[in-house]
Amino acid sequence: MNQFITLLATAVACVALVQGASTARHPARPWWNAPPSSERIVGGFEIDILEVPYQISLQAYGHYCGGSIIGANWVLTAGHCANEYDVGLHVRVGSSLHGSGGQLVSVKRVIQHPQYNPKTSDYDFALLELEQPVQLSEEFFAVELPEQDQEVEDGQLLQVSGWGATQNPSELNGPLRATNVPAVSQEECRESYGTNQITDR
Hints:
The chain is 12% helix and 25% strand. By secondary structure, it is of the alpha+beta class. The longest helix is centred in the first third of the chain and has 16 residues, at 2-17. Pfam families: Trypsin. Belongs to the peptidase S1 family. CLIP subfamily.
């Protein structure tokens, strides 16, 4: 069980910070190379799935969450996105569009972290075991995990990607997007989200 929790903690650190070493092989567009403000897409810039091949779309009657491939049979997602009672879940892999392309794979089992607390952000992650393995290759690979307890400096730019809110409702069903955000301290994060959501853990 300790090994499982260590794997989850390590994996979530990677996904939450979106800082896999895999970006060295397929580098995402850095902040200094982002489109000029006049050409920027609201909520970030479009990217191809080959830049973040581990990105998946979690679906139940359509897209509703994202996640990252961490192994041929495993996906890491947020704990608030899935629990063991969910049925009919699928993940779409290998596509820049969440509604088509790539491969649609059924989720066999959801393992939500046993200490997940929906009232805070603590342990907000879950593992999805897939019914069949996804085909990994030089182009489509799992996200590379950071070292355990690896630290990220405040202000370091990190990339986030997905099909989430872009401040423009017409773009919700659009292509994969990314944006670069600076890492912030625990204290600053707590001030932004509220004292009940961000704990000392």
